[in-house]
Amino acid sequence: MIEIASLPARLSVGQASEIDNIELDDQLLSNLSGLVGDDGTDVLQFIIKAILCELEERKLEVENVEYVRATQKNILCIIPFHGSTLIDIRLIRPLRKWSELFHGEIKVVTIEKLMQTYNGLLEYMEWADIAVCLRENNWCSSYVLNLIQDSGIPLIHDLDDLLTELPDFLSSYLSSIANKKYLENRLRKADTVTTTTDRLAEKIRSYNQNVRVIPNCVRYSRMPNQKRYHNSGSVKLIIASSDTVKVGFIIDAINRVLNKTERTIEVVTIGPPGKTLNSHIASQVKQMPTMPYDEFRKYLEGLDNAIGLIPLDDSVFSSCKSPIKYFDYSISGIPVICSNLPPYSDVVVNLKTGILVNNTTEEWFDSILNLVEDAQKRLDITTKAWSFVNNNYLYEDSAICWNRLIDDVPKKVNQNIISKGMLHLKYIRYGLISVPNWFLYNSKMLYSLIKTKGIHEAAIRVMRQLRRK
Fold this sequence. Notes:
The chain is an alpha/beta fold.
């Protein structure tokens, strides 16, 4: 038996056959016998490395390595700003996982960075095979994205919420309404639109027929320890959100549970719901601020006897959200009670991988009380929910979806790559630089044009470019 630590970087057929749990096809070896020998110079070239993994971690089937390398692409990921949890879990982490698994390259850049220098923008455009943007819906970003598409680069616009039908109770309502026309125009012009769910995709197809679903996914976490679920100590009710949510229909239910059970209950809120719940819940509410994503996950994974509560209103906007909050709770080892509405009713198997309840005080009260007083049920639900998410909604799964989409996107039209002078003209037309600055940057080109065509013809050509819409 060969020990893993002693293996060379490349293995002969004989060495590979001595490794435990690696099976070699005798018929295949027979067919290859005339092509390879079994000495140090003949190797299995696609055995890359051996890694030690936990038994419960799912083995991911990735497409043929040789094929993946042949289709390597450069992806330019364009974001509004750095440091956003939403952008991180929706685009950056899945695309980095795609890069890791499928050997592509990604660069992440902000709109502001693209606008700083013309040479910089041109370099990004020459490098990129595909551009991906998220929630870019204002006049400035629209102009920059127009430039990128004009250069022949396919543009994928990602939309993770139904921002075309935003409810007025959300904190971002006013700004989104002001920029709605830019968003709608971008959706129509995009080569492909990606969304998180089939329901959201159907809504967006009224703007663009080429819509693909790439689900929100989460990072892997170990299977929860059974010791986290017991009938001693307090039970924690967790309500978390990064934005305003309607929680009125669970307040009376929580208060009734506090009065009914003999168990000690801790109500913990994360983010905006804390203020409302703290003023209406009979016991002290532990209010936590909105956390960075990794900190949020670490916090959830450290809780014993916790129950996640996910109340949701029945608006069209909410029905088109993704169930990522359920995924986060489940992979972190916390059983979930959620409103019996999409998107949660699309993924939760009631009483097996979670509990679905109608938005009535009585149903919320019964479900919370039963789960509070039954540690074994909490463990059973958590175990099934963890397996479901682990098998279907890890970053590896979204990376595979991205790879299928990237393979389907048409190649960049290289002959349409615009020159630096033309790029500067387009900057003027879109209002991103002044006319005097354009003349300053393109003085050599103008001199050559005047010399060959005359000043009158040169002036006509320049004005045509500046006035074109």
